[in-house]
Design brief:
Keywords: DNA-binding, Transcription, Transcription regulation
CATH class of the largest domain: Mainly Alpha
Radius of gyration: 20 Å
Number of domains: 2
Distance between the termini: 60 Å
Helix content: 55-70%
Number of helices: 11
Structural class: mainly alpha
Pfam family, one: TetR_C_13
GO molecular function: DNA binding
InterPro entries: Homeodomain-like_sf (IPR009057), HTH_TetR (IPR001647), Tet_transcr_reg_TetR-rel_C_sf (IPR036271), TetR_C (IPR011075)
Number of strands: 0
Strand content: under 5%
Protein name: TetR/AcrR family transcriptional regulator
CATH topology of the largest domain: Tetracycline Repressor, domain 2
Length: 215
C-alpha cells in the first residue's frame, strides 16, 4: 500500500498563533517569509504545504484574530441591553485591548494593510470588507435600538454606524502611535458625549460619566 507521506512535525495551530503575532506587529507587506519561518519555527516549504501561500496564511491569521483578540466588538453589540451601552462597551473594551502591553498595539484589521498597493491589493480589500462588516454590525445594533425604543425613531443608523466605526478605527491608530489607555478612554468619553444629540430619545437622561453602563 502506498505511503501516506510524512506527518507534519509541528503543531499547525500553534504555528498559526505565532504567525498572527508577526503579522499583527509588522503588517502584511513588511512581513517576510524569513520573519515567518523564524517565528513559526518551520521552513518555507512547510509553510506553503500547510497554508498554501503567505496571503492564505495571513487570512487564516485574521480569522484567528477575529475569533480571539477581535471578539470584543461582537460581544458588546450582542450582549449589552441598549444600543448606547453596546457602543460604549465596544469602544471601551477595544481601547483596553489595543493598549494591552501583552499584545501588539492596535487592531490587526486596521493596521495590517492600510494602503492598497499592487503587492497587497487582495489583502487590503479583504480587510476593508471586514471593517465594513463591523460598520454593518453597529448599524444593525442601532436599528435594533430604534425598534426597542432606546434610540429615537428618526436616528440615522448608517451615519451613527459610520461615526462610531471611525472612532473605533481611530483608537487603533492612536494606540499604535503610542497614546496610552487614559487618552484612549478620553476619546471614548468624548465620542459618547455625541450620542445624546444623535440618538437619545427625547427626555432620556444623558449617559453620565465615562464609567458607562453596568458591565
Amino acid at each position: 500500500m502506498a505511503g501516506r507521506g510524512r506527518p507534519r512535525a509541528f503543531d499547525r495551530d500553534e504555528a498559526l498563533h505565532k504567525a498572527l503575532g508577526v503579522f499583527w506587529e509588522r503588517g502584511y507587506q513588511a512581513t517576510s517569509m524569513s520573519d515567518l519561518t523564524a517565528a513559526m519555527g518551520i521552513n518555507s516549504p512547510s509553510i506553503y504545504a500547510a497554508y498554501g501561500s503567505k496571503e492564505k496564511l495571513f487570512k487564516e491569521a485574521v480569522t484567528l484574530y477575529t475569533a480571539t483578540e477581535g471578539r470584543y466588538t461582537r460581544r458588546a453589540l450582542d450582549e449589552q441591553p441598549t444600543a448606547r451601552a453596546a457602543v460604549t462597551v465596544m469602544l471601551q473594551d477595544n481601547a483596553a485591548a489595543y493598549a494591552d502591553p501583552a499584545t501588539p498595539a492596535g487592531c490587526l484589521t486596521v493596521l495590517a494593510a492600510p494602503i492598497p498597493v499592487r503587492e497587497n491589493a487582495s489583502v487590503a480589500a479583504h480587510l476593508a470588507r471586514m471593517r465594513a462588516e463591523v460598520r454593518d454590525l453597529i448599524r444593525l445594533r442601532v436599528e435594533r435600538g430604534i425598534e426597542d425604543g432606546d434610540v429615537r425613531p428618526d436616528a440615522d443608523a448608517p451615519a451613527i454606524a459610520l461615526l462610531y466605526s471611525t472612532v473605533l478605527n481611530g483608537l487603533s491608530i492612536q494606540s499604535r502611535d503610542g497614546v496610552p489607555l487614559p487618552g484612549l478612554q478620553q476619546t471614548v468619553a468624548a465620542a459618547m458625549a455625541a450620542w445624546d444629540a444623535l440618538a437619545a430619545p427625547d427626555g432620556e437622561p444623558t449617559g453620565g460619566t465615562f464609567g458607562g453602563p453596568e458591565r
